[in-house]
Amino acid sequence: MKPSDTIVRVYRGAITESTHRVHLAVVNTAGTLLHQAGDPHLLTFARSTAKLIQALPIIESGAADHFGLGEAEIALCCASHNGEAEHVSAAQGILGKLGLTPQHLQCGAHDPYHAPTAQAMREQGMVPTTLHNNCSGKHSGMLALCAHLGASPETYMSIGHPVQQLMLKAVSEMASVPTNQMQLGIDGCGVPVFGMPINKLALAYARIGSLDELDATRASACRRIIAALRQYPHYLAGSDRFDTSLIEVTNGRIIGKMGAEGIYALTIPEQGLGFVLKIEDGNQRAMYPAVVEALMQLGLLQELEVNALASYHIPSVHNWQGTKVGYIQPDFHL
Amino acid sequence: MKPSDTIVRVYRGAITESTHRVHLAVVNTAGTLLHQAGDPHLLTFARSTAKLIQALPIIESGAADHFGLGEAEIALCCASHNGEAEHVSAAQGILGKLGLTPQHLQCGAHDPYHAPTAQAMREQGMVPTTLHNNCSGKHSGMLALCAHLGASPETYMSIGHPVQQLMLKAVSEMASVPTNQMQLGIDGCGVPVFGMPINKLALAYARIGSLDELDATRASACRRIIAALRQYPHYLAGSDRFDTSLIEVTNGRIIGKMGAEGIYALTIPEQGLGFVLKIEDGNQRAMYPAVVEALMQLGLLQELEVNALASYHIPSVHNWQGTKVGYIQPDFHL
């Protein structure tokens, strides 16, 4: 490892036990690389960071208005949520407006991310449903688009389905990556995911916040998504979650979204910036520390804000007994 | 990343989504480095790979014989076990011979590693105990040593306790790392862990298998541990676990032990080799693929054996629905 490497260290006792490497691209709405670390053109999947972009066609198509989706519901469409009561209820609300049920969601079921909610459910003998899946908002939004298009709800997860084609088109346009150059894979929840260089994903995030070079319909949809997330940050993630805290702590100045395998994307609308950070090995434990550190070093977070995010910046490592045995700390200079 | 880097790729669809870096040291009983990758002197913690060495004082002190520990119980002292019925029963057996109870184990409780066992317990409303902790064998062995020494069982986890001092001495001697140069931390289960360069841990593993340079008492204890693990590989880990499979597939020719944070140590007694591999970022998902690939490239595993370990060598990645969405594959040439 070279001293110049952009890393996050996992300490146990006095020594580094494990190390994570960081790749970063910060761009403006023209796609110009303003700051970088590691490989700013690293090819990887956007995973759930694409959700903000994927929400665009739900609005642009008229589906959101047709079914009367509210701003909390729009926020939930962008979410990897905690499966808390409000999230489950909002997902059910969207489905109700479509005349559909949780059985129409094909995302599968998993325990709520929110540990106290999961624990309470176990104690009450409740089994998680598709509504508790962190992607249930996105899938409900896809079903809204599907219903509005009059397309089949059985196959909405297939890349050939009109819903997924509109998602691909939106991501492709926002990232300036032609659809035939977009790498495709399957996400944890079964739908297509989009693979592209991280600087291209950062471009999509610069644009969604600052609206440059966008036509009126798209600009309006972007404004609605950003406004929904500023108004309902809890619906983007939930209790004790970084995405929610980042919006709250910055009073909506920064809007960020985590994705599986250690990818993080954020927009700073007023500065016209898009920022994407990827932990090379995909481990989420290094992601929030690296994001806070990078934002701090770039002067994009103030000291009080960094302090408010301290538990994400330099988290403690505990053992089975709950004893603190180490901590995670970024070690780099941009 | 350079083409010469020793890496394991995590594929989703057609592209690499995340990458893990590998450090490797293979040494003989003189500590000579025979093969290497990355940094063969990387400083990190041995974690549970130290358990085979930590079992030495339990035997050398006479504690094992005094309390009549059997070979399956010796194997369990070396284990990060699955918490299956045999493991729980063997740990309880050791405690019974000491006149102690599971309440004397200070390792804490967690769900059995073996998912079907954990699931069955949940369905029956059973709560995991200290016996289900993957370290319950090691802790029971520590209590055996403690009882034999006539020391206090309340404080057996403290570094100043005679039990931990004997553990430190054994690890220090086997690795040729002076006790005052050994890095100390606290493990997931609360006891001290030992930090040293990976080539030094590899030396300890070369010696435990081939007995070179060891006095008669230590050589006898090493032989007993190796024999116990060859006879009872299931007690080292359990069903669907690499450590157990590696011994079974090689008919005891290779004996290896996993540790948390992506460290793997193994001995090939008949060749006088010790081998330690560390995933830089600590992620276990890359560890078994890298171990099998490295052993194969070094000619230490035969083709039929590699085939028998295929699910560890190139494991599939599945999503929530169980669909295969990718795979993990080593990409290096030693």
How would you describe this protein?
Chains A, B: This is Asparaginase. Chains A, B: InterPro entries: Asparaginase_II. The structure is a homodimer of 334-residue chains. In chain A, helix 4 crosses helix 7 (136-149), helix 4 (71-77) crosses helix 10 and helix 5 (85-98) runs parallel beside helix 7. The longest helix of chain A has 16 residues, at 216-231. Chain A has a single domain (3-331), classed as Beta-lactamase (3-Layer(aba) Sandwich), CATH 3.40.710. The first copy, chain A, is an alpha+beta fold. In chain A, the strands form two sheets. In chain A, strands 1, 2, 3, 7, 8, 9, 10 and 11 form an eight-stranded antiparallel beta sheet that branches. In chain A, 39% of the residues lie in helices and 20% in strands. The radius of gyration of chain A is 19 Å and the shape is globular. In chain A, strand 10 and strand 11 (324-331) form a beta hairpin. The interface between A and B is large, with 47 and 47 residues.
Please name the defining characteristics of this protein.
Asparaginase_II (chains A, B); homodimer; 20% strand; three-stranded antiparallel sheet; 334 residues; Beta-lactamase; Asparaginase (chains A, B); alpha+beta; globular
